[in-house]
Amino acid sequence: MTIGRNWGELGSLALYHSSRSFWMSVYKRQDRKRRPWCFEFREKKNIYKESGFATMKEAQDTEAAARLALKQQKTRLEFSQIVNQRLRYVEAYFPNSLRQNITRLKKFRDWENLDISEISTDMIRDRMIQLSQEMTNGNANKHLVSLRSVFEYEMNNGSGVLGRNPCRGVKFLPVKKFVKYIPPVEDVQKVLDLAGELDRTYLLTIWQLAGRVREINNLTWEDVDFTRRQVRLWTRKKSGGNMTPRLVDMNDKAFNALKFAQWNRNPHSPYVFTNPLMAKKHPEDPARWKYDYRDKFFDRLCRLAGVREMGYHALRHQKASELADRGESLPYIRDFLGHEDISTTSLYLQSLGIKK
Length: 356
Description:
Blueprint: E1 2-4, H1 11-16, E2 26-28, E3 37-43, E4 46-53, H2 56-74, H3 79-93, H4 98-105, H5 121-134, H6 137-157, H7 185-194, H8 197-209, H9 213-217, E5 224-225, E6 230-235, E7 244-249, H10 252-263, H11 276-281, H12 297-305, H13 312-325, H14 330-337, H15 342-351
């Protein structure tokens, strides 16, 4: 098989083969009695052709093999490549989700040198069964979501090699639905009584503002207005993934907590809550000083207090429950929690066992 000239130089050749349709890749040469069948096809600017076949089927089979070999040669794409492409996209558009995605995709690291065409639906299904033995079904399903997004990103933005997402047909593992935990106020108070001053202020702020932990970690002093007693929280939990603000009123507990944080602030940090270890480790990079990397201290305090481990989001549940019990309207609770539409708030309250 030889690479011919580009189509623009084929004028005489096209006329010479005028007995065949111009767009047909397999044709019969009229000037040959023996082995007259040939094929010729274009790939971008190159012409691939071969002649001397006794039958049309022989020419067609050889052409098909040539196209396949060309495709395999051209489109070798390893799993690690598309994972890195997806992670770069997440880092640019959803930076708060980057660490989570990296952690989940590490469970598929043994596939990193495989060509993406070698990763089958059966392989993914088997891996999901394996993950279900290592973690909860709900957590395993989150790994599937991250993996599916890698292939989906390649299909929509990549080389066009992948014709089908191999995650299609892999069902989520069954998850038992349960009412989300709302910690009693007494249990929350026991934890706060044991916390250090900065940690107590941090937990109080999450609780009283019903903030998502990332919203509080990203909170800067520019977003705190003591005069109007309002805090501006920023979230990506909106359509399109853009950072979107919402204003939340401070009650007395939130006001006093943030005042304490202001009195004890790091004067060089833009963040309301600064991780002192990160400030010491990266003194020239204030962007890394926010209160991330504090995942374990809340669980430890719960164990010390002798109460059920609750997690940061349970404080948000507790505040939502308080607002509903107080008789606040559904639109008010929606705005306070930062939901995009009222149906989300209704479902959220139902998941807490609250009918509104």
